[in-house]
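G., the chain you wanted modeled:
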Amino acid sequence: MSAPIVIDGARDILLLCDHASNAVPDGIDLGVEPAVMGEHMAIDIGAEPLTRALSAALGAPAILATVSRLVIDLHREPDHPALVPVESDQVAVPGNVGADRFDRIARFHAPYHALVACEVRTRRPRLIVAIHSFTRQLRGAAPRMLEAGVLYNRDDRAAAIMIAGLRAAGVETGDNAPYSGRMLNATLNRHGEAQGIACVSIEVRNNLIADTAGVARWTKILAPLIERARAETGGGA
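Predicted structure as tokens:
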């Protein structure tokens, strides 16, 4: 399966999960060890069940990608050098060396973003929330102590609410950290900011949402904050 999954919902909140899957479509051989496909390089661990749980809790529609970020990173611009990665966190992806990036864009990237654009145009959500997860430790790097990060580019309306709410709840929260939405915000730049829709990306450390109990805990933390961000961000940017 490579067509994105759409979960229906009546609310004017749209949830997106660009890195929900570690699936590799037929005809593509990445040349990596099977164990790699269970690591953060291939999938945002916990992001898919968290998105589903938030969708159910909020009554909000969601779009889930169904192809691994090692096949093509849907959260990158089409001309980004790491769109079809040949290396990720010091792990080589030999099957992507010389890969036809235009074929990958046509098969996976363009249809995903066309579907998101259609949903945004049809539903005109008041708030778009992207759900991601990050690894506790990159190879050769210091451990990340943050429990969550809130990422944004120019429009910080929803981000400010999420950061304040998470910190008030005692969550160690990064403001445009562990990396910056001013550098990595492709999906929301295109479908949120460019459309004048309030948007925010929420990153949760993946070991905290790696099981059912963790997903349930973070759903209880995030759902009311998303509701608050929706209520307080208003209309266009």
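Helices lie at 47-58, 101-123, 157-168, 186-191, 212-233.

Shout if anything looks off.
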